[in-house]
Amino acid sequence: MKDFKRMLYGGDYNPNQWPREIWDEDMRIFRLADINSATVNVFSWAKIQPGEDEYDFAELDEIMEMLKKENYDIVLATSTAALPAWMVRRYPEVARVDYEGLRHKFGQRHNACPNSPVFQKFSRRMAQKLAERYGDHPNLACWHISNEYGGECYCENCEKAFRVWVKKKYGTIDAVNKAWNMHFWGHTLYDFDDIVAPNALSDGIGYEKTAFAGISIDYRRFMSDSMLENFKAERDAVREFDKETPVTTNLMGSYKGLDYFKWAKEMDIVSWDNYPAYDTPWSSTAMHHDLMRGLKDKPFMLMEQTPSQQNWQRYNSLKRPGQMRAQSWQTVAHGADTIQFFQLRRSVGACEKFHGAVIEHSGTENTRVFREVAELGHELKALGDTLLGAKNSAKVGIIFDWDNYWGLEYAVGPSADLKYVPQLQQYYAYFYERNIPVDMIPVDADFTKYSAVVAPVLYMVKDGMQEALENYVNQGGILLTGFMSGLVDQSDNVHLGGYPGPLRKLCGIWAEEIDALAPEQTNVLKFTDGTDAACSLLCDIIHLEGAESLANYGSDFYKDTPAVTKNAFGTGKVYYVGTKPDAVGLRKILDMLCADADIKPLVGEETKLEIACREKDGKRYWFVLNLTGKPQPMIGAFADKTDILKGRTLKAGEMLENWDTLLYVE
Ligand SMILES: [Zn+2]
């Protein structure tokens, strides 16, 4: 497989939406920013295949030739993320049927039914044609299949394919009835043909909930698999002509619809699109980078970010001067080997005309945004291939699992406020704020690599999971889990015999009941050392079965009963957090966990600066970022050292301005 030779710096580029005379001007302007890469052909299907048997690559040839002359690393998309009008007109089955059961017409993007044989045929053929034509292009650096796979379809083709998928998984209809608990509400299925897609016309309850989570979770698995088959079909078509160039598709962080751990196994390199909102905490952005790195436990591509402004959020604030640079370096700090923008020239019309770009509507290089893009471009160019492939390492693993995400959020009760990602985010933020590196890991990770494994809301404990966790803790691992954990199996049926089911022995507790607190209600966590903290959301009512209580509830009928516990198991320890602690409570618990697991921050001093480290060829690259919104003092660890980005040397206590970013090598 070909490796990148330098950090790709560029982004989505759509010259085919512009007159020819603009192109040369684009090239001139991009040169000023040391842009070295372009992602092309993302939404060009209608242009390069204007009819069923008509292909026209003349314009794309010209674009590829122009980029070759400029010595660009080209990311070539297969264009199949938006259906051409002729295809929908002639074959209405290629359009999706939505959750409400409506067949869509021509329009939008990410709009193809993944199980339409017509779509499958044409998309595969397109990937084949592109690979045949450009597979040996000297500037081709990466294949970009489709774009931001997502959404779902409930059409008849999907329903039929779902029946096949279900039959393959379960074998008999009796097994299906058992797995989905179909004798409830008299849903007994007599035949595979009784199975219908779980949307608003059947078992869906609004879009978020479902009467039968077993069906709905399986439908999500099936939809994720269906689109993955689309991806694989195009990838394999590319591979017929090009065995060397890495293949990716751009993912979307913790996007709910697709099981990215499963997808990543089929991708050569992970890439993703990072669009934090104006109020997204930096710890959340960092967690998403770590998740994307965790998918393959390897560096990733930042396929998209805006240089300035988004358009699709509610309030699309400008990135403040210096923010884009700092955000980009944070991305690199967490494992990115590319920095790419959406997009290089701003659209003249349609819904993305207010989405920022490297060249704004003024059409010149004389903008704040461009100057900042150029500044970063010069810095990346100076670094060359220095950081490519550099490794991040962590002693803390936080489990992220799409089955759990789906199962937890489909659960009808005990609280409508229970969301998967924020629960993990809360734990991640503790480590982030202390500069303790974290890996986001799958349920089948090698836990023994980690001093501590943190698994909040491990709702679904699938086959093999209990043994894996018990082995890990037995050998000295430190595990944290808590409320809404160990409750169901992979089909969303409850593990009978008392919560937290298969984790009960490990945790040394029995959670008899789960109380739900309304937003205006809280309880108190009374730690054994006299510290009080608040807790909310859910309160497990816990009996000790070998564990010790670290904190008891302070009020209500379960006052003085355990809320947070610790159990010795083998040579390891298991923390169980039976409620949602506030920051004080969480800090207390995780401080104890870090002490038990001998986990220390990257630097000894207290600081609000973000510190991250990547290693390569025996060298360590230290990123020091100020993302706090106000000046922060330099810490002793990097005082009097020279930063390799701008050659700055700061004394201990000297102030770093907001957005300042320094990079040290040792
Ligand atoms: Zn469909």
Description:
The chain has 666 residues and is of the alpha/beta class. It has 4 domains: 8-152 and 228-383, Glycosidases (TIM Barrel), CATH 3.20.20.80; 156-217, no CATH class; 396-597, Class I glutamine amidotransferase (GATase) domain (Rossmann fold); 610-665, Golgi alpha-mannosidase II (Immunoglobulin-like), CATH 2.60.40. Helix content is 30%, strand content 19%. The chain contains 17 helices and 27 strands. Strands 12, 13, 14, 15, 16, 17, 18, 19, 20, 21 and 22 form an 11-stranded mixed beta sheet that branches. A 9-stranded parallel beta sheet has the order 7-4-3-2-1-11-10-9-8, covered by helices on one side. It has a 3-stranded antiparallel beta sheet with strand order 23-24-27, covered by helices on one side. Strand 17 and strand 18 (532-544) form a beta hairpin. Helix 5 (117-134) packs parallel to helix 8 (213-239), helix 8 (213-239) packs antiparallel against helix 13 (402-410) and helix 10 crosses helix 14 (420-433). The two termini are 30 Å apart. Bound molecules: zinc ion. Zinc ion binds at residues 96-97, 113, 115, 153, 155, 157-158.
**Could you state the oligomeric state of the chains shown?**
single chain
Q: Biggest sheet, open or closed, and with what strands and sense?
A: 11 strands, mixed
Task: Indicate how many domains the architecture comprises.
Answer: 4
- Helical stretch count? 17
Q: Can you tell me the CATH class of the largest domain?
A: Alpha Beta
> Roughly how many Å apart are the termini?
30 Å
Measured by DSSP, the beta-strand proportion falls in: 15-25%
CATH architecture of the largest domain: Alpha-Beta Barrel
Q: Which percent bin holds the helix content? A: 25-40%
Q: Hetero groups bound?
A: zinc ion
Rg from Cα: 26 Å
- Mean pLDDT, all residues: 98
Care to count the β-strands?
Answer: 27
